[in-house]
Amino acid sequence: GAGVSQSPRYKVAKRGQDVALRCDPISGHVSLFWYQQALGQGPEFLTYFQNEAQLDKSGLPSDRFFAERPEGSVSTLKIQRTQQEDSAVYLCASSLGSGSGNTIYFGEGSWLTVV
Amino acid sequence: RKEVEQDPGPFNVPEGATVAFNCTYSNSASQSFFWYRQDCRKEPKLLMSVYSSGNEDGRFTAQLNRASQYISLLIRDSKLSDSATYLCVDPISTGGTSYGKLTFGQGTILTVHP
Description:
The structure holds two protein chains of two kinds. Chain A is mostly beta strands. Chain A has no helices and eleven strands. Chain A has strands at 5-7, 10-13, 19-24, 31-37, 44-50, 53-56, 65-68, 75-79, 88-95, 105-106, 110-114. In chain A, the strands form two sheets. In chain A, strands 2, 4, 5, 6, 9, 10 and 11 form a seven-stranded mixed sheet that branches. In chain A, strands 1-3-8-7 form a four-stranded antiparallel sheet, with no helix packed on it. In chain A, a hairpin with a 6-residue loop joins β7 (65-68) and β8 (75-79). Chain B is mainly β. Chain B has strands at residues 4-6, 11-14, 19-25, 33-38, 44-50, 55-57, 60-65, 70-75, 84-90, 103-104, 108-113. In chain B, the strands form two sheets. In chain B, strands 2, 4, 5, 9, 10 and 11 form a six-stranded mixed sheet that branches. Chain B is globular, with a radius of gyration of 14 Å. In chain B, a hairpin with a 4-residue loop joins β7 (60-65) and β8. Chain A binds chain B through residues 31, 33, 35, 40-45, 48, 50, 55-56, 91, 95, 98-100, 102-104, 106-109, and chain B through 4, 6, 8, 42-46, 87, 91-93, 97-107.
């Protein structure tokens, strides 16, 4: 389809394992966001890219979290040495422009469970 | 204080009922907001925008009270399909950035029963 695509949809990781979550935004979308949504909570901002530039990473909870978007399209969120508190849905979103007036489209999320 | 606060509910209402949710926000500079809807195990989707002048879309009415810093969502004639989590959203961070970053409330769970 033409929407935001995320993979894997579900991931079970053993504590201490590294994981990589992929996001394919809508083609041509300049802005890309990652959010973390814990059970029973609203999504929490992690990081923002404008094309390939990571302009805001203020929401990344620790240095174990790393995101990249090297060619300004596909993005990867990497979590090193996963811990149980990392269990959450990781949502990717994109928008055509870079202003607050642009409609933001979310992917269905990657469900991460750390055991 | 959280930037956006909502009563998590749950709200359980019969079909046809009118239900209202409130949301309070802390950023006095914010001038518009969103209500998003999130179905179970699905992504959030934009329901409607909220401005000072209010906004109405069919059975849904959203109001913004800037003096008291709260936003409301009113759903009339509730349908079974309205069952979802409703998220109140501030599109401008407390840092004043306006590139589209969204600050979400916790969400209010609505269940409409027959």
